[in-house]
Amino acid sequence: MKPETWLFSGGILFFIPVAFVYGMLTRWDEWVGFIALLLTGGLALLVGTYLTITARRIDERPEDNPRADVSEGAGEQGFFSPHSWWPLYLAAGGAITFFGVAVGWWLWLIGVVISVPMIVGWVFEYYKGEHAH
């Protein structure tokens, strides 16, 4: 977890100072960019802290050891559904939803109506039918 921890912790060291430089360059007339950069630094702080705590709880991974062999990372990495169409439809519903935020509430509502069944379908995909567990 060390590379991920350093990556996000480095975001704190970048975004917070850049926020203040941005504020000074705009003479504090434009607050949206300043606040957005501060919040981005805060997000990096949250993720970096989570990864630091998680790295203390788990054993060292082969990716963290510079002398590790490729075969040490062999084995099951997780379960990934190779045939699922739900993510594609959910992405379309999400795109309509976020586009609706810019266009109007009626399009946002259509996107939500499309997205919610797609989320439910993806979550419960393996609870019924041919691939039920």
Number of helices: 4
Strand fraction: under 5%
State the secondary-structure class: mainly alpha
Query: Largest sheet at a glance?
Result: none
Terminal Cα separation, in Å? 32 Å
What global shape is seen?
flat
Average pLDDT level: 90
Radius of gyration: 21 Å
Summarize the structure in words:
It is a single chain. The protein is mostly helical and 133 residues long. It is 66% helix and 0% strand. It contains 4 helices and no strands. Helix 1 runs antiparallel to helix 2 (31-57). The longest helix has 27 residues, at 31-57. The two termini are 32 Å apart. The model has no long low-confidence stretch (mean pLDDT 90).
List keywords for this structure.
133 residues, mainly alpha, single chain
Helices and strands, with pairings:
Elements: H1 2-25, H2 31-57, H3 86-103, H4 105-123
Helix pairs in contact: 1-2, 3-4
Brief summary:
The chain is mainly alpha-helical and 133 residues long.
